[in-house]
Design a protein that fits this description.
The protein is mainly β. It has one helix and six strands. Strand 3 and strand 4 form a beta hairpin. Bound molecules: zinc ion (ZN).
Length: about 120
């Protein structure tokens, strides 16, 4: 899927910290940081674990399966692995959106360099 955008897209503020996320999205994979000290999977990417402050982190592939946490102007699906991710819901009827409904990650190749992670009803 690819969306036509007429305005310039925002770019990551910390490209080195988020590079594994964007490289995985380009391969149509969803990856998130995992703390190897306490096993916590989290999002957004940070240089230390938000639970135990360890800097022993690795990037892991997550399922992309999620449940809709809330919706309004901003929509925040929580992944099966726990993290919440601000994204867009596509390919669904907005009137059918319900909190905790199952979702699935889809990848929008917006430019040759950038792929955005979005969600659709599962
Ligand atoms: Zn930790």
């Amino acid at each position: 899927m690819a969306t036509e955008y007429t305005n310039p897209l925002p770019r990551p503020l910390s490209p080195e910290l988020t590079r594994p996320f964007w490289e995985a999205a380009k391969r149509h994979e969803l990856r998130m940081p995992r703390c190897t000290t306490c096993d916590h999977v989290f999002f957004y990417p940070r240089s230390e674990c938000p639970r135990c402050l360890s800097t022993n982190l690795e990037w892991v592939k997550v399922s992309g399966r999620a449940r809709l946490h809330s919706f309004n102007v901003v929509q925040q699906p929580a992944l099966d692995e726990g993290p919440r991710l601000v994204s867009n819901i596509v390919q669904g009827d907005i009137d059918a959106l319900r909190v905790d409904m199952p979702l699935e990650a889809v990848f929008d190749d917006v430019t040759p360099e950038w792929t955005l992670v979005k969600f659709k009803p599962a």
